[in-house]
Amino acid sequence: MLSLLHGIGGDETEWRRFARPNVVLDNLIADGKVTPMIAVMPNGRAQKDDRPGENPFATGPAFAAFEQDLLRDVIPTIESRYSVQADREHRALAGLSMGGGQSLNFGLAHLDTFAWVGAFSAAPNTKPAAELVPDPSVAKEKLKLLWVACGKKDGLIRISQGVHAYLKEKGVPHVWHVDGNAHDPTEWKNNLYFFVQHIFR
Fold this sequence. Notes:
CATH architecture: 3-Layer(aba) Sandwich
Shape: globular
Radius of gyration: 16 Å
Number of domains: 1
Order of helices and strands: EHHEHEHEHHEHEH
Largest sheet: 6 strands, parallel
Number of helices: 8
CATH topology: Rossmann fold
Distance between the termini: 13 Å
Strand order of the largest sheet: 2-1-3-4-5-6
Strand content: 5-15%
CATH class: Alpha Beta
Helix content: 40-55%
CATH superfamily: Alpha/Beta hydrolase fold, catalytic domain
Number of strands: 6
């Protein structure tokens, strides 16, 4: 199961609007380039009114609160209702912008739950790298793939650069994918396309 998390101004429809994951995955499955999977696109804003509203930035705390919703509600519900393999080797977490920060924050904090983590254009909600990976030896042992990506034209690239630099210093294997895009749907769709071809293999 792949959980895809959206950005601060988005909701559960954002990935479908920006990247059409169903089409991307269907085509890759037809070409034999990915392992068949279920992709889940939840609303990552854990508050009573889960819409972005006039000031999406005010909903920042709700993105942090979603960690428990994801672990205690979303994943168990999917695994109880669909034919998926319910273990860490068969759970991936990835997101764009605010969702990229969530993916790093949640995925790296719960390596007993997730083996595959992807962050595309991670936003400033990303925790400091040393807090994300306090014990590099554990990350090295448990992560199947850590994918950190950002476009050169992205004004937030410093966030991803900081994570990459720390991982490199500590010898934690990861993919550092930089291209010529900005903080935009092309960046996110492209990285989804590449990321899914590496997971669950």
